[in-house]
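Re: that chain you flagged

S.,

Sorry for the slow reply, it's been a week of failed gels. I finally had a moment to sit down with the sequence you sent. For the record, here it is as I used it:
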Amino acid sequence: MELPWVLLALAGMGTAADLARLPYVPQVPPTALLGKVTATTFALERPRGVFDGHADASDAVWLAVAFANASAAFRNPPSRADVPPYKQLPTARSYMTLETAAAEYSCSAPSWPVLRVGSDTACRDQGRQDPCNGPLPSPGPYRVKFLLMGCGGPKAETRWSEPILLRRAVSPSAIDPAPARRGTAVVVIASILASLGAVLATAVLGALGAKVWGSLCHRDLGTDAFIRRSYRTHHIPPALPQPLHPGCRCSPPGLCRSDPRPPAPCQRTVEQFGLEGTIKTTSFQPPCHGQGHLPLDVNCPAK
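Prediction finished late last night. Pasting the structure tokens below so you have them in one place:
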């Protein structure tokens, strides 16, 4: 009766001895990545080229996920049928997920640089027994490792990762609805900035108003100057001929000399400007001795 147990132990030792232990350690990407670690998921670097030389075309790579305090008790399954599913995580403290063909982890295969653990939200809603990638139920911490499995069982494995702690969700009752009070320095700085903004706005509006007012005044001054410079011409009618004084005519008639005669004492010469710009000369006899207004420059003969 003891022979079967010995054979099983020897077979297990042979399987463990044939398992290749790779020095690769899974880790969260060190670079900045949006949603790298959340309350139910975390990202892992893709193990590209880690299994080259150990994997065949039919082999698959699995990811083993376990609580940090239960990773030492994890045992590799002998076949795919014995892979622990996601549904047993609360009781078994571990599960396996992300079954991927080994060829997709080769260096020449184009693929995404990271893996997302816990991204399949439908895995929680359905009562499936397959090893799906469901959300992690608690912050952990968790440890993970990659396991290469062929038709005869595990062939190679990596080391366990460092503990990965997820983010904790904040309870709504722990959130303070009152806004945080601002310090005195912040209030003073805000007041100064507001005052400077108001002064700057006032200065800009004043400059614009002065510019507009100046342009309007300049336009009004131009109109007034044009009105003051404009004028109207008055038509001056031609003067009517005045009768000559009897003493100013030729005596006898027809014997007038060709040279001009001096004007008579009572005769006054008046120059008028014609419409054509010529000068016209007329003579008239001013009234004398009470017959009207007597100009100062007219000498009347004595009676």
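What I noticed first: The longest helix spans residues 184-229.

Talk soon,
D.
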